[in-house]
User: Fold these one by one.
Assistant:
Number 1:
Amino acid sequence: MDADAEFLFVPSDKVLEIAHLQDAIPFDIPRVELSHRGKYCTFDTLLKKYKLNDPALKIMAPIIRGADTDRHDFSPYSAGLWAISSGLSYNILDDHQLLAQGAIIYDALYAWASHLQKAKHVQSSVERILVGLSAEGNLMNENTPNWVLDLKHLLQDYIDADLSFSLSDISRELDLNPTYLSREFPKYFDNMSYGEYIRKLRVEKAKDLLVSTNYKLTQIAYLSGFSDQSHFTKTFKEIMGESPSNYRKTAKK
C-alpha cells in the first residue's frame, strides 16, 4: 500500500483534528472509512478498499479478525494472536517501539500463511524432508498431472483458512476446464467426487477441533464450513460412523 507510510499516534479524541491538519488518513476509530464494519475489523476493511488479493492475507484475515473483535471462534489461531499482541502492549508503552515489534509478529504470521501452514513440528530438516516426500509420494507418480498436487495444497489451504469456494473457483485458480476437473478428480483423490472429497476434508478439520478445543458443535460446524449443525452432524455420521459428540467423548479419553 505504502512502504514509506508514517504513523502518527495521538489521543483518540484528537485523531480527526490532527488528520485534517496533517493531511493524514484516520483509521481504526469509529465513523471513519478505515475501521470496523459489523463483524469485520480494520484489517478486513484495508484488504477490501485496496483490493489486496494475496492468498496469504486472506488466510490471515479471519485470524486477525477474531483476535481484534474478541471472536476467537473465527479461527483456532485468533486466541494465540490476541495473547501475543496484548502481551506486547502490556510490556511496551512506547507506541513506535510497539509498532516495530508488532511488525515482526505480523511479518512472521505472513510468512507462515505463505509458506509454512503444512510444516510439521519434527526434530530435524531431514525428518521434514522425509515427511514431505512421504505425503506427496502417496499422491504423485510419473504419470500424475502437475495440477494434482497443486490442487491438493490449494484445497487444504482453503479449508484451513475457512474460505468459501466452488469447483468453478478452483478451476479458475488452476486454469483448468471445470468439466475436465470434475471428470478427472476421482482418479487422484481416493476415488471420490469433488464434493465427497471436500466433505471429507471438512470432517477432518472438525475432528481436530472436537479434540483440541471445547467449542460447541454449532461453532465447530461453522468453523468447518458446514451450513448448520444438522448438516454437520449428518455428514460426520456418514463418514465416521458415529456422531460428533460420541467421537469427542471417545477421542478425549
Number 2:
Amino acid sequence: MADTLNNLAVWLSTPHQAMIEIAHDIGYCHVVLDIEHGLFDLEALDRILALGKALGMTMHAKVLGPEAIPIQQALDMGADSVIIPHIGDVEHARRVTASAKYPTLGTRSFSGTRPARYGGVKPEYYDNENAKTRCYPMIESAAALKDVEAILALPTVDGLFVGPSDLSLDSGRGAYRNTDADKADLKTIADAAAKAGKPWIMPAWSRSERAFAQNLGASLMVVADEYGSIWMGLEDAAKP
C-alpha cells in the first residue's frame, strides 16, 4: 500500500465498494459516507461499513438527520464516528448528541451488533464505546456558529464537522464562495476547537481551501468526492 494519507478523507455518496478499495490502496485512511444526501439503504450501509473496517479504514457516517435512530443505526453497524447535520443552538446539540453516547453520559441504547461482536458484553464495554466512537455535530447554521464554544463544551461532543455551503446560506451570504466572511467563520470555529482541545473536520475541495484549513489546524480534510472524481476522470478522458 502507498504511504498513508493520515489527515485526508474521501467522500462517498453511494455504497461504492471499488472506490473504497482504490482509496485504501492509494493510502487514504478515512472515508465519509454521506447518508444524508446519498443513496444508502441500511443493508448497503452495513456492507460498506464492514468493508471499510476490514480494510482498517476509519469510517465516518454523516447520518440522515439530527435524530436518535439514524445516529444509533450507524454506530450499531460499526461507524467510527457520526457526523450530525442540521444542528441548531447548544440546547438542540445537547439533546441530539446524547444519542451518540451510552448512559450515564448520553442516551444511546444497546444493540448486540457488530461493535458488541454479536453477543453479550462486559461491564466496561459502554465506557469504552463512549471513548472510542466519535460524535461530530456539524456547524452549518448561524445558530450553531453563535453557540460553537458551548457546543464544544458538551461532554457528548468529540469535535466538529464544518458545513461551509449551508453555513454561508444560513448566514445570508448566498452560495459559498470561500470569501473573507466565509474564512472568518472558519477561523471562529478553528479557534473555538483549539480552545476546547477538540478536533474539527473541513471539506476542503480546492487547494486554497486545503492550505487555509491546514493553517487553521484542521485535524482531517475531505479532499475528494465520489461524483467529482468520476466527473474529472470522464472529462479528462474526453480531452484530445
